[in-house]
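Re: that chain you flagged

S.,

Sorry for the slow reply, it's been a week of failed gels. I finally had a moment to sit down with the sequence you sent. For the record, here it is as I used it:
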Amino acid sequence: MDVIIEGHINQEETMADVLASVVAIKQCQSPILRINAAGSDVQGRLLFSPGGYIVGGKINVSGETGWDAVRKLLNITEGNYAILDPVRKSTTELNQALWVQAEKVIPLLPNLPEDGGDFVDKKPLRNQESAVRPKTGQTDLAPLMAAVGAPRDEEIMDPSIPQKIEKEERQTVESKAPSRKYNQGRWRVVRFCLQVSFGVAMASLIMWQSDNIWSFWWHQIWVKVLALFGLTP
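Prediction finished late last night. Pasting the structure tokens below so you have them in one place:
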């Protein structure tokens, strides 16, 4: 992952300032905020989406996800951070479809409540407009690409696309089906036997018709060659 911005979380640069920096980034559609707390093992990552939404998070050591992970990471007052561009790396493990708007949590930092029900936007403007961004009108390909790259063994429902992607139908062939009975080694043996049989048949034909072959060669070819030079056999 590429580092866009990194720095320290302290009284001079608070968590609110860090969130404002992430929301202000325009060159990356889904930035990741990596946070490490000073003096403890609390460290994790938050995933953002266009529009300043926090869609999920995860704490590395405990494995906590969802609002609990978001709350603990954003309540950190001392530590360091890095804003990352995932480029083509998968961000599935960080996406819990929380849709928490950063502007709503910034005024309450660093004392976010344990219950995040008031911050989770179940129907964000992004969903109401399907996969079309309300400001630019451009089609957002990120959810579509994620759905295409995901396994198709189970039904997929992307939070930003109100439609169901059908399961992929696979055709399987039984082990005893005729299309799977081809044996290359057996074919080589059959081909060798055919070649030997053809060679034996040709040799037998030549030996059986040797007199006729010699007579044809002598009278039809050799006599004519001698006649060209004015010679007689």
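What I noticed first: The chain has three domains: 2-122, 126-170, 185-228.

Talk soon,
D.
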